[in-house]
């Protein structure tokens, strides 16, 4: 049962509201004074508030209580009431975050309609917030390779910055995930993370999508307005048409714009994070991307390497994805015998491809070791690009073929153990000093 806070210094009004709301299956808590209301706001829970504008104190009023409620929880809907209403009071209350303004004497049907819509709005906001929190909890920036550790360190450094960010890296490398991690670590984390996918934007729908529009008197917010106080993530910005790039350049500079079919200027305070699967600097040279926009975006730069260049993270990622799909206590090593296949593959689809493979194994493998092994071999036999017969070519001597095999094998083991010679020596069954000599003999840098 939803609880509603009533604050009004008139006893009769509190009584009438209490009767109406109780009959409509709401729980009511009421206050007569500012002091009583403050106590409830600080110590009690409620789902919606009805506040009179003029109360028992001259220096503090209902708008003051509105600000206190919003400080505690910005998603609680507040309906302001007044028997001495004027347009300016109504405008100020809505501007300060009120859900609606109700003039006394009020119509019962109108009152209940406002309350119903307010609670629906609150539930939607809570659902949206929970969804975002679950997204953040479900996806993490996984890795202990030096590249990922460096990125994690950089995230901590820029946590309180509002500088624009450019993230480059191949498709599937985790650019959106990195953008979410930056947002989650920032001072804007309580507000929305809004995605503008440039691959779905064209010249015809760009303005409506980004600026919003008024249709038949209804405001339809665009991405810029939705991102107010939060983060605007422009994904695949390399695919944005040139004329759209020009419009975007103007608006990210002053963060002011007009909706379509509207004369009012809207101001939105957002942070911009852009991603590209191509080298934007090169794109500026060949003319497919505006150089001035590139420099506006490239204040803070991140590069996410392909998975093949951070192969030491592969076991961590496999374990993470299996635990996500199967549960925290799942141990994939008991189910996959030939894990080396995962290191021989080039992973053209990067982390996204690895994730999809693990999900496929979970769905089709049915926790059966034989089925899982068949799925793994079938996948890599059809996709593996590594030429396994190079070392057995007839133009190689036996020593050359053996050296080639040992070199590939030891390079792979070093990658698995993140370049740690002691761990590698233990895993391959060699003394540390002997492994050092072998690495030097085969000219393997570590």
Reconstruct the topology from this structure:
Layout: E1 3-7, H1 11-23, E2 27-31, H2 34-43, E3 48-52, H3 62-72, E4 78-82, H4 87-95, E5 100-103, H5 108-138, H6 146-157, E6 165-168, H7 175-185, E7 193-197, H8 206-211, E8 212-215, E9 218-221, H9 223-226, E10 231-235, H10 242-254, E11 256-258, E12 265-267, E13 271-276, H11 280-286, H12 291-297, E14 300-303, H13 314-326, H14 341-344, H15 350-365, H16 369-383, H17 398-416, H18 421-428, H19 432-441
Parallel strand pairs: 1-2, 1-3, 3-4, 4-5, 6-13, 6-14, 7-10, 10-13
Antiparallel strand pairs: 8-9, 11-12
Helix pairs in contact: 2-3, 13-15, 15-16, 17-18, 18-19
Summarize the structure.
This protein has 446 residues and is an alpha/beta fold. The protein has helices at residues 11-23, 34-43, 62-72, 87-95, 108-138, 146-157, 175-185, 206-211, 223-226, 242-254, 280-286, 291-297, 314-326, 341-344, 350-365, 369-383, 398-416, 421-428, 432-441, and strands spanning 3-7, 27-31, 48-52, 78-82, 100-103, 165-168, 193-197, 212-215, 218-221, 231-235, 256-258, 265-267, 271-276, 300-303.
Walkthrough of the structure:
The protein has about 450 residues and is α/β, with parallel strands linked by helices. The chain has 4 domains: about 5-130, 3-Layer(aba) Sandwich (Rossmann fold), CATH 3.40.50; about 150-305, Rossmann fold, CATH 3.40.50.300; about 310-385, Helicase, Ruva Protein, domain 3, CATH 1.10.8; about 390-440, Orthogonal Bundle (Arc Repressor Mutant, subunit A). It has 19 helices and 14 strands. It has helices at about 10-25, 35-45, 60-70, 85-95, 110-140, 145-155, 175-185, 205-210, 225, 240-255, 280-285, 290-295, 315-325, 340-345, 350-365, 370-385, 400-415, 420-430, 430-440, and strands at about 5, 25-30, 50, 80, 100-105, 165-170, 195, 210-215, 220, 230-235, 255-260, 265, 270-275, 300-305. The strands form 4 sheets. A 5-stranded parallel sheet has the order 2-1-3-4-5, with helices on both faces. A 5-stranded parallel sheet has the order 7-10-13-6-14. It has a two-stranded antiparallel sheet with strand order 8-9. Strand 4, helix 4 (about 85-95) and strand 5 form a beta-alpha-beta unit. Helix 2 (about 35-45) packs parallel to helix 3 and helix 17 (about 400-415) crosses helix 18. The chain starts with a strand and ends in a 5-residue tail after the last helix. The relative contact order is 0.07. Residues about 385-395 have low confidence and may be disordered.
